[in-house]
Amino acid sequence: MEQMTLGLEFKSVRTDTPSTLKVTEDRIEGYASLFGLPDQGGDVVCPGAYTDCLARLAQEGRRVAMLWQHDQTQPIGVWEDIREDRTGLFVRGYLLEDVTRAREARALLASGAMDGLSIGYRVVRAHRDGQGQRMLTELDLWEVSLVTFPMLKEARVAAKAMSEGAELSHLARALRAAASQLAGN
Q1: d(CA 154, CA 175)
Q2: Regarding beta strands 65-68 and 134-147, do their DSSP bridges make them parallel or antiparallel, or are they unpaired?
Q3: In contact, 165 and 128? CB cutoff 8 Å
Q4: In terms of DSSP bridges, do strands 157-159 and 27-34 run parallel, antiparallel, or are they unpaired?
Q5: Pairing status of strand 134-147 against strand 43-45
Q6: What is the SS3 assignment for 36-65?
Q7: Domains annotated on the chain, with CATH
Q8: Mean pLDDT, consecutive 10-residue segments, the chain of 185 residues?
Q9: How far apart are CA 156 and CA 74, in angstroms?
Q10: Helices then strands (H, E): number in the chain?
Q11: What pTM was computed for the model?
């Protein structure tokens, strides 16, 4: 389901793809967006889409909000590190111990009942490719939420202690699944 509020977009969708990742500490990290992979609405985020926004936020000394299920009234933590790399939009942060919903989120993450990440953004520039997919080339990122059902199935939280090999293995599986989906298999 796609929602728009005053130009801000965020997406969530029910998916039957279980995650194999676990969260065992208050520190959370993962990819909130992966470049080149179509989400379940057909949108594809292009490399560099967050560059201007992240630079502007850093210059202004502002942060992207960590929210619960895209609810602007429920901030639950702090994203300490948000950056683009070759893979996508990487986020690292922590849940606020004194916030009730954050304690609930920690329990859900630790149990594996929840592990999705989702972005809330405003499209600055986009175009349609030859297959009708919306190619998002510049985004104004407002928030990254912990969600039950991310629009991009591969956008998941990883435990801080997760080994690099396991993270790369998960990413490789996600990329193979996306390539298979694009090939129509």
Answers
A1: 9
A2: parallel
A3: no
A4: antiparallel
A5: parallel
A6: CCECCCCEEECCCCCHHHHHHHHHHCCCCE
A7: 2-182 (3.20.16)
A8: 54 37 63 92 94 97 95 96 95 94 92 90 94 94 91 68 40 52 57
A9: 20
A10: 3, 10
A11: 0.73
